[in-house]
Every structure is written in C-alpha cells, then in structure tokens.
Amino acid sequence: MAQTTDGQLTAEVDAYVEEVWEDVVEDIRTLVKIESVEDLSAAEPGKPYGPKANEALMAAEGIARRLDLAVTDLDGYIGYGDVTGNEGAPYVATIAHSDIVPVGLGWSVPALDVTRKDGYLLGRGVLDDKGPLVLSLWAAHFFARRVESMGTPLPYTLRCIIGNNEETGMADVGHYLACCSEPAFCFSPDADFPLICGEKGLYSGKFTSEPIGDGVIESLDGGTVSNAIPGQATAVVRVDADKLPSRDGIDVKAAGEGRACVTAHGKGGHASMPEGTVNAIGALADYLLKHVENLTDAERLWLHLEQEVCHASDGKSLGIAAADDKFGALTCVGGTVRTVGDRFVQTVDSRYPTSTSGSRITIELRRFAALYNATFEEGRNVAPFYIDPVSPEITTLLKTYSEYTGRKGKAFTIGGGTYARHFRRACAFGPHEPHAKEPSWVGTEHGADEGVSEEGLKRALKIYIVSIARLMELELTQPEE
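User: That's the sequence. What structure does it adopt?
Assistant: Structure tokens below.
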C-alpha cells in the first residue's frame, strides 16, 4: 500500500468518521437490542453459549460482512473478519466481544436499546463491549475501502476477532487458538485509555453455609453475576413486615402472612474496581443482624461471614491481603448470594498481584470459612498477565493516543481481565477515557445505565484507525509456537 503522510491520513480518517458515524451508532444499537447473556442450559451444537449469545455473534458477523470483511465463523464459539494482507505475512488483530453481563436492576432508560442523552450513549454493552466491537469493525472497513481503491494489499492481514464468551470464562479464545495461529500483535478495545499492559490474576470461588434448618431467614438472593458488586439484595424473613423498620437504602414489604421481604440497595460496579461502590449484600446483613429477632446461631454466623466478605474489598479480614509494585493491592468482593436447598451460597471474586497465588488464596479462604462453620470451594484461577510497555507496538499505540488527546500516554495495569491475557503479544487499548468528568447519571460497565461519551467513541475510532495504520508500518513477526 502506498505511503500516506500523517497529515493526509488523519484528514482522511476525520472525514471517514464523520461520514459513517450515524451508521456506527445504528450498528451499536443492533447489537445492544440483543440480550446476549450466556445460557448454557439452552446450548446446542453451533450455539455453545446459548441462543441469544449466538444471535449477537451472528449479528456482528453480519455487520462485518456488510463492511466488506471476509468473515469466518468457528462453530458458533467465536468469529472473525479479515482485510487480507500480503500472502505469507503474519496478521494484526483486534478482539472484542458480543456477549454481555445480565441487565440487572436500577435502569432509568431501556437497557436493551441505545439512548442518546446529552452527548452520551446509554444501554447495556455500549461500553462493554458492543460499542467498541462495532468500532473495530468500522476501523477495518476503513482499510478495506482503501485496499479496494488503491488496488494493493495491506502489509499484514487485519483481523477483527468477534468474541462471544468474554464475560463468563473466555472459553471462546481457547477455541480460537485451537483453530488459528496467534497474531503478531493484538489489542482489545475493552478497557480504559491510555493502554493496559498488565492484568491481575483472576480468582473466584464460593462459600457455602452449614444447613440453616428452620430459621427466621426463608431465603437470601442478591447480585446478578459473581464478577460485579451487587446493587441490590433481598431476604424473605418469617417476621411481620410491620415489626421491621424502614431505613435509608432498605425497603420492607409484606410477603404474605407473617413474612416480610427486605430489600437492600447499594451501589454496584465492576468487581475489579470496588472503590466507591456499596455492596448491597453487606448492607442487608447489617440490617438483618440489627433488626430481626430470634435469628438462629447458624443464621447469625452466616450473616457475620457476609459482613466480613462484603464490607471490605482489600481481603484483609479474610487473610488474603497482598500487593506488588506492578499491580498494587489485591481486591476481593462478594458478588452473589443465593439460597440452595437448606444452605446459603456466597460467591467471591478476587483480582490478585504477583506477590500471592491462587493456591495461597484458596488455603486462606478455607481457613476463614471454617471459622463460620462454612466451606469454601475454589472456582477459576488465572495467573497475572504482563507485556513490556516499551515494546514498539505499545509505544506506537501510546503515541497515537497522545496525539489525539494531548495527554501523556503511559501504560498501566488493572485488576480486570480482558482477552489480551490469552495472547503473548497483546494489550487492552481504550475506549473509555478515565480522565473525563462524566455526569452522575452515567453508569459504569456492568452497572445500571451503562454509558459512554459519544464524542469519546468517535475519537477512539480515529485513534484505532491511525494506530492500525502505524502498526502496519512496523516489522512484525509471528510469535513462535
């Protein structure tokens, strides 16, 4: 492909983004309308994560085809669209996902649509990650159009990988890597700018109570997924509703004769960013211990466990606190509580640095559980990921970010988990801008009223296109098998 000066390229990109932007928003809307939550109970061949997740994958692949990408679907697990480059050369990739966490409660706008409000787009997935997925496809379309007009291929194939299982395990990437070679470099538009070069270890598990028996608490139910701080939690108790006081953040309603439904409201958010959140399960435990009489010893013991798990996110009360110089401090949050038979089950989600390990966390959480006559079972355990922030690919992306924002581009590490950790040469690159001052009504990813700045998305699309153009000018090699 003929060389283009930076000035020519940026002018061309600016014009392109203005030309296509309304179509970009409509494509985001198309995906947001699909409630693409994993449903393994309805899985079948070709739809391994259930029908709605597959519907979103097919819709995204359809958008890619319309945008002149050569699309391949890998058995319904994951797909990709290519702009073909020089034969025999490695490929550069983006990877984003079409699945979402459950909608949850507390929305003031339709969760399964895109609402435009005062310069923001609101809806489940506009930020995580359907909006960025659509940006990646339109970025590739820019190059497909250039290749067609110039008649020469890209130095490297550009591949947009469309994931479908990011929120619940990333098994889709395992399927992809079993079918395809790794990219020479890959970035995931599924996080914050400037650029994420490392991710904490990912750990999960669950506490299970001793048999509760014929107690006062009939049921506990809180949270939607284990990797989010719950904004709401509910208990049904065998107490007359008029004997229970209402409090700030607590609703009490009759639930039949001699029964009350107590609902605690908190402030939800992503498990990797607990600062500023309020765990509704912890608030519910506080209320029940203070205002519900005649709790059994087993119930009281469990509610005290809930307080320790849900009121602090540093893991200190659980015996698992840790920190290092790359990732900072460990976090641990309580995500969901459920009633299962005659027991209560509380999930936890921890993000840990290199100074500890999943096996060490398991040992300590089992010890902690025993103090409350409970048991603990380990779930996932994925080691931390880190890429050198001075590599040519990383410095190229940071340079582009700095030019478009006027801010210093410095790589950092996070507690969240993105697709980047599954590749040897990869990073997470925007599109959320943490420096922006957003209105209080704009929700976070995984939370109610999830939102993103429309201008921020437009700028991110420009950053992605120019970054990809510059990656095409580097000497890239295929990672060794």
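The two ends are 29 Å apart (CA to CA).
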